[in-house]
Design brief:
The protein is built from five helices and four strands. By secondary structure, the chain is an alpha+beta fold. The protein has a single domain, classed as Nucleotidyltransferase, domain 5, CATH 3.30.420. The chain is globular. The N and C termini lie far apart (41 Å).
């Protein structure tokens, strides 16, 4: 089973998805389903709001580019091949933010051990853990004010 998450700049999850696959399946196959798992409504692109998306080198393929074009994101990616036109590098890729969020979710014992047999139940448990992260962040921000 593979987990794929999309997070904001501070590491708080916007969406998470899972798939049952063998180990040699590329994570790029989860790219489109991860983008579609976002639970928040995006501001319209027509109003001038740019939506930035940072991905790792594993998503530098045709299906990854097709997915970000379909969803109108400004992509930040380290290229593993030079077949695409050069893009300005304004923001460095920060993949470590996602890699830090997944262990945060594993702090919940049910997520770490996976007692559920059905994938749908496990996905809902992951979403509950994401909600718990957001609640803790909201609580921490309220203590500061």
């Amino acid at each position: 089973m593979k987990k794929s998450a999309i997070v904001e700049a501070d590491g708080e999850p916007f969406g998470i998805t899972i798939t049952i696959a063998v180990a040699d399946v590329l994570d790029a196959h989860l790219f489109e389903s991860t983008i579609e798992a976002i639970v928040l409504e995006r501001p319209p692109v027509e109003d001038g709001y740019e939506q930035h998306l940072t991905v790792d080198k594993g998503d530098d393929n045709d299906s990854g580019y097709r997915a970000y074009l379909d969803h109108a994101y400004e992509l930040h990616i380290e290229l593993i091949r030079d077949t695409h036109s050069p893009r300005p590098k304004r923001y460095p890729p920060r993949r470590w933010v996602v890699e830090r969020t997944l262990p945060w979710l594993s702090m919940c014992r049910g997520v770490m051990v996976r007692w559920e047999k059905k994938s749908a139940n496990y996905l809902w448990l992951l979403k509950l853990a994401c909600g718990l992260l957001w609640f803790r962040r909201y609580q921490r921000l309220n203590e500061l004010t």
